[in-house]
Amino acid sequence: MKDFNYWKKLHESEKLEEFSNDTIGLLWLKTKSIVRKELISDFLKNNAITLTETALAKQFIELFAYLSKDTVNSHIILNDFINDENEKQVVKLDTVQLVSELYKLKNFEWGGDYQNSLDKYLVSHYVKVHKSYDTLISKFEKEINVAVQGYVLNSWYNHWSSILIEHIFKSHLAVLPTVGQIKSVIFLSIMFHLI
Length: 195
What we know:
Blueprint: H1 4-12, H2 23-34, H3 37-46, H4 56-68, H5 71-92, H6 95-102, H7 118-127, H8 133-170, E1 176-182, E2 185-188, H9 190-194
Antiparallel strand pairs: 1-2
Helix pairs in contact: 2-4, 2-5, 6-8, 7-8
């Protein structure tokens, strides 16, 4: 039976294909995207829904059960809420300014070597190599600070350029964005929007 736990297990195992072809699966994902403290209370208030549970994990189960009773209407109210919340997020993002800031990074040098992992790089190149405190201190100005700076700058660049790219997809009329983060899901396709 395709109940809450069925969809939860499918999501946890990152088998997301079935969600795309099942209205209840889509409902589960949409509900998951709003089960955040700051979102769920607004959704419940906007739609005059009262839940008995107070813990978010239990509210997710209860809200999904409630919404499953009328999937057509539930998809409509979830779509409307998600689109409204996304619009609030879009308004806060000054894309022109952000692009201008991203162009300021001229060199893309990570400062780490193993899968861009700064901590492993620092441990393997400094912590486990140098026994002398004074030698280690001398490495900061020309080596360690440069490595840390490169890592931070490139991580910053990756984060904000990803936000911009997501914004491009999310702003398309055929896309229903996720407003709360869902592992392995950034946005929902037109099929989600129409249901």
